[in-house]
Amino acid sequence: MEILGQEIVPGKRNYLEMDVASLYTRTRIEVPVIIEKSRKPGPTLLLLGGIHGDEVNGIEIIRRLLYRKQIKPQSGTVMRIPIVNVMAFLNMNRKFADGRDLNRAFPGNPRGSLASLVANSINKGVIPHADFVVDLHTGAEERFNFPQVRYDLTHEQNIELARAFNAPFTLLQNKAPKGSIRRILNDRGTPTIIFEGGKSKTIDENVVETGARGVLNVLDHLNIRKLDPELKKSPKTVFLDSNRWVRARNSGMFQPVVENGSFVKKGQLLGYISGPYAQFQKRMNSPMDGFVFCVNQTSVVYLGDAIFHIGQEQLPG
């Protein structure tokens, strides 16, 4: 196996550097790609973190698994890119300095914007070698996603990967947005799932451990690395079907009263929005029965802001 012009040596950890761009100072920016290939044949799993530079939970999940040496393959190959968007990570920003979102730039263009150049390098140099992909994300800004996996039905094995990951919640989504790496992977026929957990610029221990356990579950499912039977004991995922955002009907100061990840009944109090000069205090009530799987943790909101994301459990059959 040769990746990025380098022969991958079985039985050892291979460190590759994908040359993508440079700073104003002409200092080169390289994206580390860490690959371990077993001497025993098997599938190749690609783990991605930091497509958005401020989504640090995904980066920490891969770092922790590497540090613990828990994803050394017993068969097949594991490729990891802990920080896909190194330039945005340097600025602790979601996007490139020019405002472009790397996850809307795929498949990329060798003569396009900086985001397109990076997307093109990943699309041509790494993606063709992957048989399965787990892409690790967090909620944008102050939106805290309770640990969850998202999948679509463009490939029949997507749901198998999602079920194997066994996050607290699993959500069926429509076809991936144009320009996203998931869209490109699905178009190639590469089974792909998205893990979402926590919020930007914050490492959350529960999210990281849940994500790390999920990756190990996927490795076990693919027979790349078998799990100790004791580690397989955990509650089964809840599949969520229809979902909706509960939005702020007033601008003001926001205080949630419901726990993220909890089940709520229609009409149940979710939180309050209050005027900063004590002019009013408005209740936010749930419009439906369902599970809260995302809470906006901002302290001040504007009219129309998305505050709570609630989903209904998918019924059998």
Write structural notes for this entry.
With about 325 residues, the protein is α+β, with helices and mostly antiparallel strands. It has 2 domains: about 1-230, Zn peptidases (Aminopeptidase), CATH 3.40.630; about 245-315, Beta Barrel (OB fold (Dihydrolipoamide Acetyltransferase, E2P)), CATH 2.40.50. The chain has helices at about 55-70, 85-90, 115-125, 155-165, 180-185, 205-220; strands at about 1-5, 5, 15-20, 30-35, 45-50, 75-80, 130-140, 145-150, 170, 190-200, 240-245, 250-255, 265, 270-275, 280-285, 290-295, 300, 305-315. A 5-stranded mixed β-barrel has the order 8-9-11-18-16. It is globular and about 65 Å long. The model has no long low-confidence stretch (mean pLDDT about 95).
Task: Summarize the structure in short.
The chain has 317 residues and is of the alpha+beta class. The chain has 6 helices and 18 strands.
Which blocks of ≥5 consecutive residues have pLDDT under 50? none
Distance between the ends = 42 Å
* Strand content range: 25-35%
Q: Write the CATH fold name of the largest domain.
A: Aminopeptidase
Cα gyration radius (Å): 20 Å
Topology order in helix (H) and strand (E) letters = EEEEEHEHHEEHEHEHEEEEEEEE
What is the molecular shape? globular
User: What is the count of DSSP helices, taking H or I runs of 4+ residues?
Assistant: 6
The number of E-state strands comes to 18
With strands numbered from the N-terminus, the spatial order across the biggest sheet is 8-9-11-18-16
Largest sheet: 5 strands, mixed, barrel
- The helix/strand class is alpha+beta
What is the helical fraction, as a range of percent? Answer: 10-25%
What CATH first level of the largest domain would be assigned? Answer: Alpha Beta
Q: Return the average pLDDT rounded to an integer.
A: 94
Number of domain units: 2
The CATH homology group name of the largest domain? Zn peptidases
